[in-house]
Design a protein that fits this description.
Its EC number is 2.3.2.23. There is one protein chain. With 218 residues, the protein is of the alpha+beta class. It has two domains: 1-115, Ubiquitin Conjugating Enzyme; 165-217. It has helices spanning 2-18, 103-115, 125-133, 135-149, 166-169, 174-181, 187-197, 209-216; strands at 25-29, 32-41, 52-58, 69-72. Strands 1-2-3-4 form a four-stranded antiparallel sheet, covered by helices on one side. Helix 3 packs across helix 4 and helix 6 crosses helix 7.
Length: 218
C-alpha cells in the first residue's frame, strides 16, 4: 500500500507540473512527497481575483482511499474557510471523498469554492453572517484580505501590515467604529462589540446606539 501511495502521488505531482495552463502547482515541503504545498490563482470575477492562494496538503496513509488533508496557508475571508486556522469545510475533503479525486482536481474544487460559498454550512460563522446580511460588504472585505494576504510573491504573511485598518479587516465600516470611539470607548472594544452584534449591512437598522453603548459599558 505504501508503494502504491508513493507511486500515485509522484504521478500526480508530475501531472500538475506538466499541465500548467491553469496555474495550479504543487511542490513538496522538505523533500517529502506526502507533505506538500499547492498554489492556485484566485478565480476571476470574484473578490479573490489577482490573489495567489497557498494550501498545506498532507497525503494520509491509505490515500487515495482516504481524503487529502488540506488547509489554507494564505489567510482567506470566506464562509467555508476559518479566518484563523485556514481549516476548510468542503464535502469532498470529508464524507464525499472518492479515490477518483487527485491533487489537481481537489485544488480546482477549492478554487471553485472561493467563488461559490455555502454560508449555510460554514466553517467561519462570523463570515457567513456577514455574507448573508451584507453581501457587498462581505465582498469588499474579502477583496481587502486578498490585497493584504494573497500577494503574488514570496512575501505572504498571516500578520496584517501595520497600516491595515482594524475595522476593515473584520468587515466593519470605519466610520461606524469611529462614531463610538469619539464617545470615549477604546477602538478595540468597539470592534469587539460590533463584531458580536454583526453590526453590518441591513442588520445595522435592527441595532440601536443604546444597545451598543450598553455592551460597551459592561
Amino acid at each position: 500500500m505504501e508503494g502504491a501511495r508513493l507511486k500515485r502521488i509522484v504521478r500526480e505531482i508530475a501531472a500538475c507540473e506538466r499541465e500548467s495552463d491553469d496555474e495550479i502547482s504543487v511542490y513538496p515541503i522538505d523533500e517529502s512527497p506526502f507533505h506538500l504545498i499547492g498554489t492556485f490563482p484566485g478565480p476571476i470575477h470574484s473578490p479573490y481575483e489577482n490573489g495567489l492562494f497557498k494550501v498545506d496538503i498532507v497525503v494520509p496513509e491509505g490515500y487515495p482511499f482516504h481524503p487529502l488533508q488540506m488547509r489554507f496557508i494564505t489567510r482567506v475571508y470566506h464562509p467555508n474557510v476559518s479566518s484563523q486556522s485556514g481549516a476548510i469545510c468542503l464535502d469532498i475533503l470529508k464524507d464525499q471523498w472518492s479515490p477518483v479525486y487527485t491533487l489537481k482536481s481537489t485544488l480546482m474544487s477549492l478554487r471553485s469554492l472561493l467563488c461559490s460559498p455555502e454560508p449555510n454550512d460554514p466553517q467561519d460563522a462570523e463570515v457567513a453572517k456577514h455574507y448573508t446580511s451584507d453581501f457587498e460588504g462581505y465582498e469588499r472585505t474579502a477583496r481587502y484580505w486578498t490585497e493584504i494576504f494573497a500577494k503574488r510573491d514570496n512575501e505572504q504573511s498571516s500578520v496584517p501590515p501595520s497600516d491595515a485598518d482594524e475595522a476593515q479587516l473584520v468587515g466593519l465600516d470605519p466610520k461606524h467604529v469611529e462614531k463610538f470611539v469619539n464617545m470615549g470607548f477604546a477602538k478595540s472594544r468597539v470592534i469587539e462589540v460590533m463584531r458580536r452584534l454583526n453590526y453590518r449591512g441591513q442588520n445595522i437598522q435592527n441595532i440601536t446606539d443604546e444597545q451598543v453603548t450598553s455592551l460597551l459599558s459592561e
